[in-house]
Specification:
alpha/beta; Rossmann fold; seven-stranded mixed beta sheet; 32% helix; 26% strand; globular; binds S-adenosylmethionine
């Protein structure tokens, strides 16, 4: 699998996920994240959001996805994240039934309890995908859906840019970033038992460039992707 170090054009100091998001949380730019995943979530045709009564949002961060899911009628949403500072913001939103500090690959959530699992903009921080797909499988009910949205591996490699933020002293700091090819997602998901239902990709477009004009050279490149997986019954 590709090693991000071979693409890194920035050479920023790199920190682990917990220290990075704990530091970034106060200035975390929701607008950037929203342009990556919300258009993809809205484009999905195979997910009957309003009829899904329970969801677990893995790597829920500040709760953007939870808020979107509530707006779509998903009744009970649990969230899990490694970073307590992100969970504190999610808690203030008041959209989650339960928020738990923990790892997406080994949650303490109940077996077979959820109609829907969501994982938005988390996979680039995971060294391996298989533990995530296996854990999501354990949590899903029969016929349950897994919606995973990620930062596209193409743009991570083409831009050589890790997930990063500017800290209080003005230093650009990278958060541990891994490149996962789409084939790696497919292999990990199929090995765990998931069936592919839908896949979409979003390109760098005018909406993105209005917020990130310096990305003009990437116009038309794949920016993010969404998979919808189903846990077959029986
Ligand atoms: C870019 S944020 C996305 C948060 C949220 N899903 C969203 O779309 O707004 C990435 C989040 O993933 C969390 N994260 C990364 N690796 C994780 C892991 N192994 N287990 C749990 N959370 C993790 C981080 O703490 C951070 O809150």
């Amino acid at each position: 699998m590709p090693d991000f170090a071979n693409f890194d054009t920035r050479g920023y100091r790199t920190v682990d996920v917990h220290s990075g998001y704990a530091d970034w949380v106060s200035t975390y730019l929701a607008t950037v994240a929203e342009l990556m995943d919300i258009p993809l979530l809205e484009a999905l045709r195979s997910v009957p959001w309003a009829s899904l009564s329970s969801a677990a949002d893995l790597g829920c961060g500040t709760g953007r996805t939870g808020a979107w899911l509530r707006g779509r009628g998903v009744a009970a949403i649990d969230g899990i994240d490694l970073t307590p500072e992100m969970l504190a913001v999610a808690r203030e939103r008041g959209v989650y039934r339960r928020l738990v500090e923990g790892d997406v690959a080994a949650t303490s959530l109940e077996d077979g309890a959820y109609d829907l699992l969501t994982v938005c903009l988390v996979d680039e921080h995971l060294p391996e995908l298989s533990p995530l797909y296996r854990e999501a499988w354990r949590l899903a009910k029969a016929n349950g859906l897994l919606v995973l949205v990620g930062f596209h591996p193409h743009i991570i490699m083409a831009s050589g840019m890790p997930t990063h933020f500017r800290n209080a002293s003005g230093e650009q700091v990278a958060i541990e970033t891994h490149v996962h090819l789409l084939s790696e997602h497919v292999t990990a998901a199929l090995d765990a038992g998931w069936t592919l239902v839908e896949m979409r990709e979003r390109l760098v477009d005018d909406d993105w460039l209005a917020v990130k004009p310096s990305w003009e050279r990437f116009r038309g490149h794949p920016l993010s992707f969404a998979f919808v997986w189903r846990k077959p019954s029986g």
